[in-house]
Amino acid sequence: MNSEQSFNSQIAEIIRPDPSLTARLLRMVNSVYFGLTAKVNNIEEAVFYLGLRQIRELSMATPVIEEMEKMSRSPLRLPWRDLWKHSIGAAIMTREILATTTLLIDDDTDYIIGLLHNVGKVVMATAFPTEFARIVEANYATPEDVCVAERSLIGWDHARVGGYYLQRHQLSAEITDAVLYHNAPESAPDHGFYAAAVQVADQLVRYAGIPGGFEKVDPIPDEAWLKLTGWNILYGDGEKETRIARAALSNSVQRLPTVLNGLV
Fold it and tell me: Which of the residues 28, 59, 121, 233 has an alpha carbon 20 to 30 A from that of 21?
């Protein structure tokens, strides 16, 4: 993907032996979002339509989803597909959010932190099924209320569990801090910009009608994300900066559900 001489045919040859990645690739290119009149069944043609950036995102999402699906062999009957959809949506929106800031990112950290921000929920469902069942059965007014319930029943919330899990897997501090502090980016000693982007992305994805995964949380009110500490960290409290950021993110939020229906 990074080679200056990579061709669609070469990329297609690498994708072809992976049935899961191939299925997601064809499902996405044939979704309503692309509006193609004829069905695409050729991998090389699909690569042409999607472009390198979305192929990269798809290739990163697929192994993570497969790994988390293996972890999710919990006795609980949970809507795992909703969690995958929310996670990928958060990855897309985290990347979009950070692209509107002055932070320069030359790798895929922005996508990965959004993709993994709820990995703690998977760990909790596997390690503490009884307690987690009580959490997902209740109704909550805000995402923060979910964290309060998690800390009450398990001791840690999903952000802390996920951050610890990723630290044990020796991921970079940028990723582990973003996951650990995504519900309270103002508390992050380092990499608060990343944590702030994930916090805002999480709310924007919920606002787009894609639930956070398992728990039942009331719909996000219009522009509630403007009151988040993460929004202030990213854009300050200036009217001009807020207006520019809102305009830049509006189209991404509107098309997100269609994009995700092609991915998951």
Answer: 121
